[in-house]
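Write out the 3D structure for:
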Amino acid sequence: MLYQLYEMQQAAFQPWRMAAQAQSAFWLNPTQAFAETPLGKQAKASLDMFERLTRRYAKQAFGITSVKSGGDMVVVSEDVAWQSPFCRLLHFRKNGMDLTKQPKVLIVAPMSGHFATLLRSTIEGMLPQHDVYVTDWADARDVPVADGTFDLDDYTDHLIDMLHVIDEPAHVMAVCQPSVPVMVAVTLMSERKDRLTPKSMILMGGPIDTRHNPTAVNLVALQKGESWFRRNVLATVPAPHKGQGRKVYPGFLQLTGFLTMNSERHIKAHQNLYQHLVDGDEVAASKVKDFYDEYLTVMDMTAEFYMQTVERVFIRPQLAEGTYRYRGVLIDPGIITETALLTIEGERDDITGPGQTEAAHALVKNLGDEKKSSYMQLGVGHYGVFSGRKFLSDVVPVISIFVKTHKS
C-alpha cells in the first residue's frame, strides 16, 4: 500500500499545483499593479515554493554538448554503446578527435536512489583528457516484470559486459556504492585472465569496509537489521507504471532518508531560496533550483539488489571479511596483481566515512605498492569527492596523473 499512498498523494496535489501555477502567472503579469510590491513578491515566491515542494521531479538530461579538449572546443555527442533493460552504457564521444590518444574510462554511477545525471560535473571534469563512458542505470519502476530480476551479481555481470563492449583494457572509476561490485568484477576478470581486465580501478567514497569510522548510514543498517528493512521499506510498483508488480525500494523513501540526514541544511537552503525569490535575485535562486532539480530526482531500485546491498555491504562488509560470494564462488581480491588501485576519500564524508574506501588496499595484498595510491581530499563531504570546485581543481588532476601512470 505504501507506493499506492504515495501515488494518491501526488494525484491529490496535482490540482493544487495547477492552481499555484495559474496564480503565479497572475503575479508575473507586467500589467498587474501589485506585482512589484512586497506583497506581490512574497505571494509569487510562496507559490513557486509550493509548486516545487509538491512536484514529482523528472529525470534530468546530461546536457553536455561541448568541452574544451586539446586546446579546442569540441562537440560532444551522447551515444548509446550498449543497453539492457536495466542499464544503458553511454559514450560521451568527442567528435572530430582521435580518441585512440586518450585513455578510456568507464565511470560507474551509483545505483542508490539518484540517476547517473548526478555525475554531470564528474563527467565534465573527466572529458577533457579522457574518452568517457558512463553507466546510466534504469528506474526499476519502468522495467517490466517480464524482463526478470536484477541483483548484486547481475550488477557485476553488467560491469563485465560493458568493459567488454569498450573492447580494450580501460580504467574503471566507481563512484560510491559500486566500489564493491567493481572490485568483484575486476577480481573475476583477473582470475579468468580476461584480456580486457581494467588497467586501473579508481574507487571514490566507496563502502569497502563500513567498520571504519561508521556513519549514520552504517549505524542505521546495523541497528535495524535485515528483517526490518525487508518489512518496512520495500513496496510493489503500482499501475500505470511499466514495472507494475515489481518489488522495489522506492526512490521517494531513499530521498526521505537523504533529506532527513541533513535536514537543517536543506531547510536553510529552501529558506534562502525563498528570500532570493522575494529579492528578485534570479542568479542566486537559479543555483539553488538547479541543485535541487537534480537532487530531488530519484529512481527506484529492485528489491533484490537493495536488500543484498544492505546485507552484504552495510550490515556485514563481506568483501572485507573475506566471505563475499558471487554466484556461490568466494571472491578473493588478492588475485588482483595487474590492475592498479587508487582510492579517493573526503575528509568530511558523512555517508562513507574516511578509511572505508582506503580499506581496499589491504584486500589487494598481492598488488605491488607501485600500483597502489590513496588520496584524501580535505574540506569536502561525500559529494565533494566527485563533484564541485575542489573535485575539478584537486581530484581530477590526481585521477588523470594516476591513469596516465598506469596506461599500460
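The two ends are 54 Å apart (CA to CA).
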